[in-house]
Amino acid sequence: MTKEVLEHCTRAVVRYMNGDMKEFERLTNIAMKINHQCVCSNCGNITIPAKRKIDKDKYVKIELCLDCGAQKELQCVS
C-alpha cells in the first residue's frame, strides 16, 4: 500500500464516520484503483517504479515486481 492509497483510505474512513456514504465510496474506489495499479499481474505482489536503460541517454519507465521479477513497460523517457 502506497502513501497515496493510505491517504485516500484514511479520508474515506473519516467520511464514513461522518455519514457521507457517497464520498466514502468514491474515495474507496480511488484507493482500490491506485492499489490495483501497484500489483503484479503475474503473482499479485507489490511492484515498484523503476527505469531500464535502453541506449546511452534513453530510458524506459517500468514497474518491477519485488517477488517474481516481472517487468511491465510504461513509457519511454529521454
Q: In words, what does this structure look like?
A:
By secondary structure, this protein is of the alpha+beta class. It has two domains: 1-38, no CATH class; 42-78, no CATH class. It is built from two helices and three strands; from the N terminus they run H-H-E-E-E. The protein has helices spanning 3-17, 21-37, and strands at 47-53, 59-65, 71-77. The protein has a three-stranded antiparallel sheet with strand order 1-2-3, with no helix packed on it. A hairpin with a 5-residue loop joins strand 1 (47-53) and strand 2. Helix 1 (3-17) packs antiparallel against helix 2. The longest helix has 17 residues, at 21-37. The protein is elongated. It starts with a helix and ends with a strand.
Total helix count?
2
Query: Low-confidence segments, ≥5 residues, pLDDT <50?
Result: none
Spatial sequence of strands, sheet with the most strands: 1-2-3
The backbone outline, from C-alpha atoms, is elongated
End-to-end gap: 29 Å
How many individual domains?
Answer: 2
Radius of gyration: 16 Å
Mean pLDDT: 84
Strand content range: 25-35%
Q: How many strands? A: 3
The percent of residues in helical segments reads: 40-55%
Summarize the main sheet.
3 strands, antiparallel
Note the run of SSEs as H and E. Answer: HHEEE
Give the helix/strand class.
alpha+beta
